[in-house]
Design a protein that fits this description.
mainly alpha, 2 domains, 4 helices
Amino acid sequence: MVEFIVSLIVTALLLAVYHWYDKVAPADKKMTWGEAMIASVYVFTVFFWVYGVVPHYWLEWADKGLGWRADVLLEGPHIPLISNEGTGVIAATVDGGKFFPFRIPYLILRDIIAVLIHVVFLGANIWYWNHWQTRAARATAQEQATEAPSEFGRPLIRQGAR
């Protein structure tokens, strides 16, 4: 569990580096060859971390810490009016349940969560690409907002404020 939580904290720190650089780097600045190489190593590190390390530590924690194996079935809580005596709400009908025609082992739930981790990071990956590619348009819009006066002739943003 500790490794998984630490991997999420490291992910947040890696993404905080991007947000810091996005604020300090001018949008119209062209990268040098050296900066591009450093950025490519950084992006590779982030990809390796979020698509390899974080799901790995989730699978390790689910297997060893939580004991989610193929022989342990997900049955859910026992609710008297919904489930049969001694079975959970999600228990299979062959095991005495009422609704589910199949067994759900914890191993399947573990793998579904691993896939969801990948899907969340893929969505974040697309958002970050779009955010970086549209930084010039955002800077232009911010400059236009500072130059355009309000209906009363005053600037919309205080001069000198970012």
